[in-house]
Amino acid sequence: MLRVEDDDAVRVVTLDRPAARNALTPDALDDLRDAVTDADQPVVYVHGAGDAFCAGADLDTVRDLDGPRGEAFARRGQRTMNAIEDADSVVVAGVDGAARGGGVELALACDVRVCTADATFAEPGVSFGLFGAWGGTRRLPEAVGATHAADLSLSGRTVDAETAREIGLVSRVVADPRAVAAEIAANDSAALGELADLLAAETDRETSDRAEAHAFARLLADEPFES
């Protein structure tokens, strides 16, 4: 599911499940958290294999969830995304292809988000009775503002790379996202760590995450999930 490659300055973490568009299972969430937080390198680069960045939560997993298990799954994803957000390394998301639902939430948890011209982004959960519950209801408004966050979340529409850049979902559209990770890693590692901490938003994360997980669980309790 994950491939990890290390060099002196950058750890490359590849979501490697292309047949499932790199969808994340519960175990993969834990592996992803460990791959990012265990890095000794000043920069971690996260990207997806194949033609997608990440399709979000594994739908076979979600189909088996009821209310209590749904809340536990939401909390598990939140722990991974929070750990990525809090990682000592600077975490760069390189989006090439589709980022959907939890894939958008993964990108949002990273310090820097860049994409190729082939990238697309969407929060489609609302169309089948759910929503991203891995911290996205907090991070998306922080990244793009309340108006764009509401539009993306409530419509479920797909936006292209240039629109994502215009609204602040990514900072750059580039041919080679990994080169951005190398560019960042060329700087002083101590300064990178200090800056990443200072730039992180100060929010009441626990309250937001708890409310998000409870709402996700209520949707699953009211009606079984069907994609």
From TrEMBL:
What InterPro entries does the entry give?
A: ClpP/crotonase-like_dom_sf, Enoyl-CoA_hyd/isom_CS, Enoyl-CoA_hydra/iso
* Lineage: superkingdom: Archaea
Q: Which UniProt keywords apply?
A: Lyase
Listed EC numbers: 4.2.1.17
Q: Does the keyword Lyase apply?
A: yes
Name a GO molecular-function annotation: enoyl-CoA hydratase activity
Q: Which family does it belong to?
A: Belongs to the enoyl-CoA hydratase/isomerase family.
Q: By what name is this protein known?
A: Enoyl-CoA hydratase
Q: What is the protein's species of origin?
A: Halobacterium hubeiense
